[in-house]
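Colleagues,

For the teaching module next term, I've prepared a clean inverse folding example: a structure given as tokens, and then the sequence designed for it. I'd like students to try predicting residues themselves before seeing the answer, so please don't circulate the second half yet.
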């Protein structure tokens, strides 16, 4: 009898656990040109199972390497994008390459390439971000996506010497 009850309990729990759906949060934002550029694009953020994935498509870039970062404030009101403040850095680390032992900002996404038509794309995933959660060290809502004119050298402090801010979007719901 105990064996039958135990088997029934396992089947029941498996059914309950299997019926639970993972919560998925999504935000889609549009990048707008800054610093007299023609740079625009779309960025999507999806959170599932504790991991946030970002996918960005950027248009109107000069061919070559460009940096993309999260900045402190979702305020893209200034013509040069500087109203967003500096890189988002809630852990007060040095600027650097993502997940380097020497330190990195939570907003240090890195570099991507733009093709000869000026289109660039980057995909990025991390469990160090969340969408609209209660953890200020992980929550990306209220921050901004900034695309830079040049490459991040991953060394210069505090921001990687990536040049002007050519596109901006606030991460808002």
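(Answer key — instructors only)
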């Amino acid at each position: 009898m105990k064996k039958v009850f135990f088997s029934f309990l396992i089947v029941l729990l498996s059914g309950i656990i299997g019926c639970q759906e993972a919560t998925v949060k999504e935000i889609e934002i549009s990048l707008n040109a800054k610093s007299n550029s023609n740079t625009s694009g779309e960025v999507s953020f999806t959170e599932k199972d504790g991991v946030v994935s970002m996918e960005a498509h950027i248009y109107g870039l000069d061919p070559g390497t460009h940096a993309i970062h999260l900045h402190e404030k979702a305020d893209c009101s200034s013509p040069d994008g500087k109203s967003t403040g500096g890189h988002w850095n809630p852990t007060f680390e040095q600027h650097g390459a993502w997940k380097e032992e020497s330190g990195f900002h939570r907003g240090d996404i890195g570099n991507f390439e733009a093709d000869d038509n000026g289109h660039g794309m980057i995909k990025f995933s991390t469990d160090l971000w969340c969408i609209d959660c209660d953890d200020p060290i992980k929550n990306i809502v209220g921050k901004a996506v900034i695309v830079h004119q040049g490459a991040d050298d991953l060394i210069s402090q505090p921001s990687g010497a990536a040049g002007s801010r050519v596109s901006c979007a606030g991460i808002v719901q």
